[in-house]
Structure formats: structure tokens, C-alpha cells
């Protein structure tokens, strides 16, 4: 075993993946380690931090490459894949790569075009040939905004920004704030009628390369390698007429002179001329590494009941349980998605709270007389899409203005974070009273409908069929 550990510590030797149970959690230093997988529940905070410590060792000479920073030397961060909710258990803040959401390819391309539009506003690109290209990019992005359907619920929630950027003049001189609005409010809504997925991926690569070139980003070297490799793959397909016609350009991309003199407009020409050819390439995937792990039973014992996990108190146990069982307990799933409960659902909740996790006295001590459904909602929250759906008919049936839409969005955000509103009168208090209070922007009839929706959301967690 010591030999295996020694080999693991040596970056020049295999193995590069180590799987252990209670052996490598503490007392081992492998500075090159970039990924940790926590696949067990840990209840000792000291051990939890020791496990994290396996990734915190600095490695100044390590050659790294990633999509955020390109190629660089020295470990800047490491990743933890926590499959058993240890971070939630210890209430630790997690720094997610990106913003926690998966962006579509169309969204990424739209955002990169917007960044190019803004970069082309600099004096270095004042020449008319650059401005012609900028106008074509604006035309493409503006067309995508104009094509958004304002009758769709998702678009209505962002209508203020959609209307703003339907005016092409809004693209005349983009500020950082404008780019932020387009990135956050518009990009998730846009779609692309392009059916050639490989062409879109090439667009994404090329726009990224152009931005890296213009902004001096470290990711340029990686994008350059990808483009050269793409050209090499195309060069093997000259039996296809369309590829053979572009052979001079393909070979130019592979030459050193191209990269010495290449301008951003040269990259745009490569993108436009080669994008339709990418469909003919079959890229090789990374080889699959097979491991020969043996799972041996060290000891076996029959007849004894396993001891349950221990928690410091009842409330902690309750919080942990409902965060872990959002999808596999029907009653919890219904509460999170604002679906009506049945009598059986409520009985199941009562059993969980007062029998499986503790006693009636425990519940009374920590939660007083609060209905079980509201307690679950407060812990597990409410799915944001479910909250949006609850207000969708109200939005669709009323021609709401920007102020009203903004108010409804605040209400939706509040309910998705808190699970429900204790009282509909909450909407007359902070944070909903600024910049416009409800009574000043809604009619009496609208207020009645709005309060009814808020009450119904709460009632779905209290009443049952």
C-alpha cells in the first residue's frame, strides 16, 4: 500500500486517481491534487476541514489549463464534488465555478457577440472595415431581441429590458451596465434557428478566440490550438468538394505566418468561411481510463441493527432531512413545487416530524404550533419556476407595465427564497414599498387577485384534500 501511495504522490507515475475509505482523508500531501470527491457523510467538523485540506496545498510549478484562465502556471484553485451534502450540513459557503447555472450555446454566443460589439467601440477599431463588422454584429443581436415573443411568460418578466433593446439605438454605445443587462436579462431568452450544432460550436470557439485576442486573455493560446487542430482535421477531408475549395484558407490557418500577422477580421473570415465545414469532422474523444478496483469485504456480522447517525439536536436533524429528501419524499416534492397535498401526505409529514426524527414534544419545542407544511417550506424553499407559474395567469391576463412587472418579480423572488408569505399584508411593507408601493401601481381589483394568489400558495402548504 505504501508503494501505491508513493506512486500517487509522484506526478510522473500512475495512478492519477486514488479511491480510499478513511485512509487519505488526513496526513497526506499531494500538491498536484486538483479534484476532491466527497462520497461519504462526514459529521466531524475537524475531519471535514482536514479533507478539504488535501486540495489546499500550493503547487507553483504545476502547468494548468482551463476555460476561465486559459493556460497558466501554479494551482489557482481546486474543485470539490460533494455528493453527500457535507457543505450543507456544516453550513459552509460554496464558491461555484461560473454562476451556478448552465448556459445554452445560443446564450454563450449572444453574450460573446455583445462583448465584441462593445470592444469594437474603442479607438483602435475606428476604421470603417471594423465598424461594418460591428454593425453586422449589432444587426444579428438586435434581430434576436426583436424576434422575442412578448406574449410568453418568460419574456414578460423581462419586458422592460426587451423593449429597451428592441430599439436599435440602444446598441449605439454600449456601457458596462448595458452589457450586464443584456447578459442577465436578454441572453437567457434568445434562441437561434441555426440547426447545425457543430457550426454553432465553431462560432462559439471563434468568438472566444477573437475576444481573447482583443482583450489579451490567457485563453487565446488554448483557442489557437483548438483552431489549428480543427484545420488539420479538415485537411484530411479534401475528398469533399466544399472542403477542397477552402483548402488554401485551411492551410493558411496552420501556418506560423498567419498567427504572426492575423487580425480580428482575419479570424472573422475564418469563422464565416469554415463554419459550414465543421460538420464533416469527427473529433476524437479523450481515451477512457479503466481501473481495476476490487471491493473486498473485510468483516461480516449478522443480526445487529445499524446505529442511526447522531445529530446535535432535533432542529438540525429536521433541517438536514428535508434538504436531503426534496425529490424522493412525495409530500416534500409537492410542497416545493406548490402542489396540493393529500391527507396521506400530511400524515406522512406528521410521522416524519413526530416519530422518525423525534417526538411531538421535540416539534412543539422548536416549531411551536406551526403547520408541518410551512415548516418544510421554510426549510426546503419553493421552486422558483413553481412560484412563477402561480403568478403566470395574473401576468398574462393583465397588461402590466414595467413597475408592476418589477413588483411581481420581487414577490416571486421573496416566495421562492422564504417558501411562502406569512401574511399578504407583507407586500405593503419593506422591501416591497420601494420604489413604488403596491397601492400606487395596482388597482383594487388587481390587489385582490394578487392577495388571493399569495394566500393560495400558503394554503397549499397547510390544507390538504
Can you put this structure into words, describing what you see?
With 465 residues, the protein is mainly α. The chain has helices at residues 2-9, 45-52, 86-89, 105-119, 128-146, 153-156, 159-166, 176-186, 197-215, 220-235, 241-245, 247-254, 256-261, 264-274, 314-324, 330-336, 343-356, 360-367, 372-380, 384-397, 402-418, 438-441, 444-459; strands at 35-38, 63-66, 70-73, 79-82. It has a two-stranded parallel ribbon. A hairpin with a 3-residue loop joins strand 2 and strand 3. The protein is flat, with a radius of gyration of 28 Å. The relative contact order is 0.06. Residues 305-311 have low confidence and may be disordered.
Amino acid at each position: 500500500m505504501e508503494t501505491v501511495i508513493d506512486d500517487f504522490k509522484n506526478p510522473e507515475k500512475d495512478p492519477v486517481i486514488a479511491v480510499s475509505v478513511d485512509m487519505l482523508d488526513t496526513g497526506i500531501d499531494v500538491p498536484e491534487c486538483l479534484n476532491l470527491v466527497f462520497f461519504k457523510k462526514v459529521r466531524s467538523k475537524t475531519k471535514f476541514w482536514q479533507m478539504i485540506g488535501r486540495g489546499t496545498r500550493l503547487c507553483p510549478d504545476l502547468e494548468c489549463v482551463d476555460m476561465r484562465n486559459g493556460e497558466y502556471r501554479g494551482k489557482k484553485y481546486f474543485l470539490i464534488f460533494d455528493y453527500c451534502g457535507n457543505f450543507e450540513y456544516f453550513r459552509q459557503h460554496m464558491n461555484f465555478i461560473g454562476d451556478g447555472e448552465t448556459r445554452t450555446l445560443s446564450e454563450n454566443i449572444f453574450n460573446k457577440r455583445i462583448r465584441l460589439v462593445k470592444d469594437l467601440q474603442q479607438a483602435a477599431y475606428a476604421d470603417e472595415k471594423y465598424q461594418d463588422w460591428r454593425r453586422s454584429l449589432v444587426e444579428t443581436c438586435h434581430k434576436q431581441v426583436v424576434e422575442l415573443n412578448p406574449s410568453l411568460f418568460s419574456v414578460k418578466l423581462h419586458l422592460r429590458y426587451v423593449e429597451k433593446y428592441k430599439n436599435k439605438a440602444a446598441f449605439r454605445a454600449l456601457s458596462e451596465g448595458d452589457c450586464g443587462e443584456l447578459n442577465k436579462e436578454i441572453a437567457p431568452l434568445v434562441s437561434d434557428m441555426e440547426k447545425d450544432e457543430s457550426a454553432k460550436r465553431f462560432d462559439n470557439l471563434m468568438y472566444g478566440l477573437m475576444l481573447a485576442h482583443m482583450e489579451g486573455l490567457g485563453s487565446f493560446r488554448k483557442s489557437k490550438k483548438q483552431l489549428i487542430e480543427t484545420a488539420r482535421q479538415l485537411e484530411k477531408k479534401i475528398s469533399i468538394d466544399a472542403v477542397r475549395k477552402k483548402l488554401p484558407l485551411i492551410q493558411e490557418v496552420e501556418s506560423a505566418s498567419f498567427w504572426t500577422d492575423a487580425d480580428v477580421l482575419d479570424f472573422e473570415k475564418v469563422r464565416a468561411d469554415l463554419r459550414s465545414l465543421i460538420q464533416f469532422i469527427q473529433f476524437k474523444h479523450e481515451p477512457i481510463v479503466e481501473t481495476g478496483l476490487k471491493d473486498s469485504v473485510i468483516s461480516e456480522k449478522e443480526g445487529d441493527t445499524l446505529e442511526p447517525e447522531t445529530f446535535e439536536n432535533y432542529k438540525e436533524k429536521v433541517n438536514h432531512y428535508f434538504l436531503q429528501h426534496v425529490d424522493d419524499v412525495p409530500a416534500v416534492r409537492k410542497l416545493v413545487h406548490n402542489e396540493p397535498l393529500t391527507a396521506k401526505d400530511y400524515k406522512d409529514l406528521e410521522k416524519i416530524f413526530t416519530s422518525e426524527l423525534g417526538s411531538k414534544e421535540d416539534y412543539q419545542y422548536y416549531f411551536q404550533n406551526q403547520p408541518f407544511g410551512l415548516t418544510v417550506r421554510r426549510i426546503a424553499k419553493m421552486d422558483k419556476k413553481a412560484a412563477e407559474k402561480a403568478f403566470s395567469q395574473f401576468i398574462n391576463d393583465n397588461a402590466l407595465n414595467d413597475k408592476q412587472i418589477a413588483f411581481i418579480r420581487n414577490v416571486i423572488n421573496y416566495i421562492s427564497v422564504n417558501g411562502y408569505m406569512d401574511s399578504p399584508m407583507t407586500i405593503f411593507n419593506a422591501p416591497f414599498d420601494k420604489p413604488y408601493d403596491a397601492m400606487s401601481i395596482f388597482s383594487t381589483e388587481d390587489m385582490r387577485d394578487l392577495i388571493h394568489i399569495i394566500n393560495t400558495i400558503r394554503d397549499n402548504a397547510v390544507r390538504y384534500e
